[in-house]
């Protein structure tokens, strides 16, 4: 799971999503967060938000690192609509290609894709499944460069496993690979944690700030960042889990809204809970659940199929964005 807290940054709640962290901070401050620029576009049921955290002060306010973020929100992904999945893959490919240009990654830059996560835990298997579907080409450039058609670049991919099964930090494995293969860019893919039920399984985040495996669920791990690896690192993540405390808090919100349709005296029903700020109420729920070990990480029962679908969306989008020879309008045909 990706970055949640860095030294000197404010804790942004149980979320890896910069968009959510900004929403929380804006609500707390009563307005837009200074130094955080956002722009939102709607495209056929897909909501795309571009966000730039411009400075350290803005980063401190929202608890996320300075950099550029793109968030794709698609509630319809839960409906297993294959046409919508193809549309999202195509849009993802287009926006990701633009993102590469924006941060100065050239058409011939060598790319290493890292699939973080645990094959044996479905909700954490996003990275390895994406790697399985990536069009890798580096070996062709190494072994038969004269036979490589125009429009392809050197792409390699690896799923390094997790500390619990390898005994080695993912960052250490990736450092060794980077030192030997010398890519110009690392793309790290990981499962995330969200603070909104609606965004679980429906959201993709892209960021140029690097990644810290495990930190979204409280496991501090050595990160994959430009400072550590010596090359730019783009993080791609999908929230696949949510804390039980978040579900309880969201349910309280929904119940309050439901009863407000019947009465303006919801305080009589919910007492102090009705008047608490959302963050304060969430902390109260955590204080109740944590001592008894009930603040579980929860994932939807359809996670098996969803992981396959979203991994294919990301993989096909990356294949099209990284290789000019791949048809942007038929990206789904380039996964295997």
UniProtKB/TrEMBL annotation:
One of its GO terms (molecular function) is metalloendopeptidase activity. Pfam families: Peptidase_A25. Transmembrane segments: none annotated. Gene3D superfamilies: HybD-like. Residues 1-16 form a propeptide. Belongs to the peptidase A25 family. The gene is gpr. InterPro entries: Pept_HybD-like_dom_sf (IPR023430), Peptidase_A25 (IPR005080). It catalyses: Endopeptidase action with P4 Glu or Asp, P1 preferably Glu > Asp, P1' hydrophobic and P2' Ala. The keyword Protease applies. It comes from Paenibacillus aurantius. The keyword Protease applies. Initiates the rapid degradation of small, acid-soluble proteins during spore germination. Homotetramer. Autoproteolytically processed. The inactive tetrameric zymogen termed p46 autoprocesses to a smaller form termed p41, which is active only during spore germination. It is an enzyme of class 3 (hydrolase). This is Germination protease. GO terms for biological process: proteolysis; spore germination. Its EC number is 3.4.24.78. SUPFAM superfamilies: HybD-like. Keywords: Hydrolase, Protease, Zymogen.
